[in-house]
Amino acid sequence: xxxxIRNGRIVTAVDDYVADILVDDGRIATIGLxxxxxxxxxxxxxxxxxxxxxxxxxxxxxxxTTSTAHTIDTFGSGTRAAAFGGTTTLVDFCxxxxxxxxxxxxxxxxxxxxxxxxxxxxxxxLLDANPGTLGEMHTLVRHExxxxxxxxxxxxxxxxxxxxxxxxxxxxxxxxxxxxxxHAENGSVIQALVDEAVAxxxxxxxxxxxxxxxxxxxxxxxRAICLAELAEAPLYIVHLSAAQSLAAVTEARDRGIxxxxxxxxxxxxxxxxxxxxxxxxxxxxxxxxxLRDHSxxxxxxRGLKTDDLQVVSTDHCPFCFSEQPHGMRYSxxxxxxxFARIPNGAPGVETRLPLVFDGAVVKHGMSLxxxxxITATAPAKLFGLFPKKGTIAVGTDGDLxxxxxxxxxxxxxxxxxxxxxxxxxxxxELTGRVKKVLVRGQCVVDxxxxxxxxxxxxxxxxxxxxxx
Length: 468
Ligand code: DUC
Ligand code: ZN
Ligand code: ZN
What we know:
Elements: E1 2-11, E2 16-24, E3 27-32, E4 41-45, E5 50-53, E6 55-60, H1 75-84, E7 87-94, H2 102-113, E8 119-125, H3 131-144, E9 148-152, H4 163-175, E10 179-183, H5 187-199, H6 206-210, H7 214-231, E11 235-237, H8 243-254, E12 259-263, H9 265-269, H10 295-306, E13 311-312, H11 352-363, H12 368-382, E14 400-410, E15 429-439, E16 442-446, E17 449-450
The structure holds dihydropyrimidine-2,4(1H,3H)-dione and zinc ion (2 copies).
């Protein structure tokens, strides 16, 4: 059925005006004043509300297996949570098992993503740069719609590649119109610090942060930029958390190098103080990179304002705090004896949009246009999804969020739709709330009611990445 959104304040990265939007057959058919429509149209009154393009979160790990753990959200539960949070497009990380080829991993990923309720694309993690892997990159970009790759400079023996492999992969990605995403931390030095801490019996969750200092992120970001510059390939630094890293990105961008970066809500709003929580509570905040001290936050906000940071995404990588009812494989409790065994990652897909609205627009005076840009438009552009996703215009997908900019509410994990059992932001009061969400014209969220269904999400074959 067609949908008409009446009288909303339409905000994109460049527009801000009141009009009606008619969505027909999944796409925006008409935008205009006082649209006159026939009978078979679902009407949504948006008077007093913002109408935003559906959020685009380009960093999630749904139904992901690691060597020791498994994320708790399936594509069904994770995308439902995303929709309740105003996010209608995800680009999720497909991670091959050790020894598995990227194309085979993508087949497995497709089987898992069949339950998605919003549209999803895939980034491919590369565990090596062997000839077979490099050969598959072309197929992935040209024939599978996977136009971005992620490599790790951390986790030696598990995910880490050496600089030569990183450089080779960047060169092939760049030549194929693909973006290279990098997890930038100096993995070898971190491993030395972790081994040292464990040997000294320093095993509480806070040592996760103390063994991954910001300087080792800054160093790796700088190195990744040098390699990308040499490879003449676009680079995207994922989950940037530290002032040193941002300085390296800023310096490179000022020289005209195609370097881009995202940060995440937890780095903008939380600090290493969380690691002082009593007992094992601090394990909830064990993610990589770790939370930094307060001083980094002002730099990240500055970066978002000046476009040295282009994107806020979540790194939604949810593991339950409790062992029950899902079992140890899904739980932080694995690391109760040692921080080194705590599954790394935290949830966030459901709270990104309202948190960033409250922090950026309400508290930091960011323009609504820039808010839309960092949460929808820029990620869509950088990852080959624009203009289908990330804006509101005739012909684009009818992914829309009706957002009340003044309603106050409180984050409670108990009211979330993710399967995870905690929120990093429990009890935080926000101004601004998602009221309705449409996916390709179909209303899937109406207040607290879920109207979508598992499997309605489509696979996004992305075009070339790396353009902004
Ligand atoms: N990197 C991620 O991007 N997510 C979870 C853990 C990690 O190291
Ligand atoms: Zn990472
Ligand atoms: Zn991640």
